[in-house]
User: Fold this.
Amino acid sequence: MKGRSYLRINESRPLQHAVEIRHESFRSAEFTSLLRKWNIALVVADTAGKWPFMEDVTANFVYSRLHGDKELYVSGYTSDALDLWARRVRAWRKKRLGVYVYFDNDVKVRAPFDAIALARSVGGFEPQDVSGIVPARSREKARTSWPAMGSRP
Assistant:
């Protein structure tokens, strides 16, 4: 990476680490204990059933990666699915955990709309203008493609 990367840190900052599993062999008490020991978050990943789903809280924060409800990287989230995630987020916040949610279902440009809908439902986020999220040629199609969101963005 010499000459191809740049990182200048002007003060000491704590790092948070998270691990997303992709194999059943990680589903063990020993693994979750190790994560807890070092305050490393187990990523709560929705992978449309492709990889194991675990919800163990192992750190002082939760990191969720939502790769798609029904189809990996492609499918959007219905209002029922987003309601389930909103309940999870509210429960984590109630425990005073830091909560990070990353939508990775962006093949059909669904991620921004699902993220906005989830943020609205848990509170604390109301975008002023999101029309620039979708390329102009796709905007009208996008507005009619996510009826679960309610009103268009």
